[in-house]
Prior knowledge:
Helix content is about 65%, strand content about 5%. It is mainly alpha-helical and about 200 residues long. Helix 6 packs across helix 8.
Amino acid sequence: MVEDEKELVEKVIKGDQEAVKQLIEDYQRLVASIVWKMINNEFDREDLCQEIMIKVYKNISKFRFQSKLSTWIGRISYNHCYNFIKKKKKMINFNTLDHLDPDLIGHSVFVEDSKNSKKEIVEDNIEQILLKSLDKLPPVYKLIINLYHFENLSYNEIAEITDMPMGTVKSYLYRGREKLKDILQCNFSREEITSNI
């Protein structure tokens, strides 16, 4: 197993099949995450993931180590999806959130029952509530929140991937969080949310 990015890239360029396999294994999650957040058609998603990994493989000799390899691959993924959307003229739709905090999953939320004014447990857990709430955000906020919170990318890496200034990334992340908070507060009282997290 190659642990150094430079060594991995050099081995892939030389045609080392184990290095190619490692490249795919190491970065397929990042590629899939970006594709899944930008593309709504399941069949298109699978094809795009494969196309992107092929594009990465074919262009790896152009990687200049001016950024992290993950940032470069993320940028290719973002651009490929963006171009696909432009060609297909489809709306961006995020249907899934792959990596939620496991501590949040399984908690119930209480809501007021209008008929008997008693609290009951709603079957939806926090994961479903977050999915529904995130789905209401504008696409750019969803993407930025996903890359920052669930892919653990830095502001700089997100800026490079999306070709946005770092200040814009920070601003969109802040606005996205605020909008998410507003959505959650419109649907659930503060006590209902905080007491069950």
